[in-house]
Amino acid sequence: MDTPLADRMRPKILDQFVGQEHLVGKGKPIRRMIENKKVISMVFWGPPGTGKTTLARIIANYIEANFVSFSAVAGGGVSEVRKIIAKAKEDYGLFQKTTVLFVDEIHRFNKAQQDAFLPYVEDGTITLIGATTENPGFEVIAPLVSRSQIYVLYALTEKEVEIITKRAIKFYPKHSFDKDAVKHIIKTANGDARTAINAIELSSSISRHVTLRVAEEAVQRKAIYYDKKGDWHYDTISAFIKSMRGSDPDATLHYLARMVKAGEDPIFIARRMVIFASEDIGNAQPTALVLATSAMQACHMIGLPEASLILAQTATYLATAKKSIASSQGIWSALADIDEENLDPIPLHLRNAPNKVMKNLGYGQNHVRYPWKVEKETGRKINQEYMPKNLRGKKYYKPDWK
């Protein structure tokens, strides 16, 4: 059986490792730990394909330790843990060789299984490195967490995935890869190096000439031509906004789906909806701004893919809401007058009067603070002017909804 490409190209030294600079960069904790050859037990928490297994192997290699991989998915139990511990003790006693026990998917082990590691972590028989995609604060027992350092690994950037993808392509010197095919593989990897490597491997088995069609077949995803810095980006968000403005929820969802599928930042979409809620709905349905703001906060907390549900709910609400541009047109008109008209003095009765000098000059004189209250109590109409002299009678805000 052929060794998978991901294993064949797995880095063996730290300088070949791509990503997680906050952990392995110059002066960062894991690099310092390796350089000092003083490695403690730790838990790597992060999404798939971010280098958890590779980093554990590199650590073991640098400190010249036995590397033992143990997976909850493979069904390892407490009895197997004891065998590993016995071998670790023997190797340390005979050869002074430490053992790094890498526990993949550690969150899948039950409490009893996790408890079995504890005494041997405490006495230094093993250096435990756990890997999990789940929050270790919830999924790993507290005694293990307290005796380990938690390190968070992040999804790789597209640039980092590109570096790994180009390395993978070098394993197929007799193949040719079209640029748009490689770009599609990088984008659909979504920060997962293993996904990108597997896509290169599968693509190369389909054809010697890897075209976009071949790449689409390999990753089972259609390419969407959407450059976040190009025309497709601006055209799609423009169509999305115009569809909401035109009160068409179906077209709104179509363009939203295009952006979600293309990997657009959900916060960018949500931010545009916040602007839309104020600019195009305004006081005709003021709750639109509240919902849009909440949606942006929720997207920030949740992230994709579930954030697409939040975006869809909010976008359809905005598309079907009453529309008004009264406040938008009002501020645009007021800003235009600031640029074009003379700025007459603020009326004296509206000015602040913090001292006697200003009071003697007429600041705040005859100002009625609560006209509505006086009118209600006396029945007398209060005609108080608020505009500068040259703009008296000017109307900026003209409610335009039914």
Automatic annotation (TrEMBL):
Pfam families: AAA, AAA_assoc_2, MgsA_C. Gene3D superfamilies: 1.10.8.60, 1.20.272.10, DNA polymerase III clamp loader subunits, C-terminal domain, P-loop containing nucleotide triphosphate hydrolases. The keyword DNA repair does not apply. SUPFAM superfamilies: P-loop containing nucleoside triphosphate hydrolases (SSF52540), post-AAA+ oligomerization domain-like (SSF48019). It comes from the Bacteria. One of its GO terms (biological process) is DNA-templated DNA replication. GO terms for molecular function: ATP binding; ATP hydrolysis activity; DNA binding; enzyme activator activity; single-stranded DNA helicase activity. Residues 38-156 form the AAA+ ATPase domain. Keywords: ATP-binding, DNA replication, Nucleotide-binding. Belongs to the AAA ATPase family. RarA/MGS1/WRNIP1 subfamily. DNA-dependent ATPase that plays important roles in cellular responses to stalled DNA replication processes. This is AAA ATPase central domain protein.
